[in-house]
Specification:
Elements: E1 2-7, E2 10-16, H1 20-28, E3 31-34, E4 36-37, E5 41-45, E6 56-58, E7 63-67, E8 72-76, E9 89-101, E10 114-119
Length: 123
């Protein structure tokens, strides 16, 4: 399941993993919403309510996750305020759902108020 993430002039491709949470989120796409940042994490509430699935707090740069307490889609592109080393750390357990392909560091330079997540359909 491929998706496109668009924030201002930055367009990234990501692959969602084969788990229940990722499938439900993929089926709910597209999202075009305002977002927040927390350190080097973008997060935004989505119209999906799911229980945790194989949750963890320590993430890899470029990973995507769902944060059940905030019903939020999360994009980790660097350290967060909860990090204790160079790895991103979520505020609490998140469900990993995928990974961005390409240069996720581009997100450090965006200055936009909304994000768009959509299905990437091969033509």
């Amino acid at each position: 399941m491929k998706i496109r993430i668009s924030v201002g002039p930055v367009n990234l491709t990501a692959t969602l993993w084969d788990n229940e949470t990722a499938r439900v989120i993929y089926d709910a796409l597209p999202f075009d919403l305002p977002y927040h940042t927390w350190g080097d994490e973008i997060y935004f509430a989505i119209p999906v309510s799911l229980e945790p699935e194989d949750g963890r707090e320590i993430m890899e740069v470029g990973e995507l996750a769902y944060w059940p307490p905030g019903h939020a889609f999360c994009i980790f592109y660097g350290r967060t305020p909860a990090s204790t080393d160079d790895r991103p750390r979520a505020a609490s357990e998140v469900t990993p759902i995928g990974k961005v392909e390409g240069d996720i560091a581009l997100l450090k330079k965006v200055n936009s108020s909304t994000i768009r997540i959509e299905k990437l359909i091969a033509e």
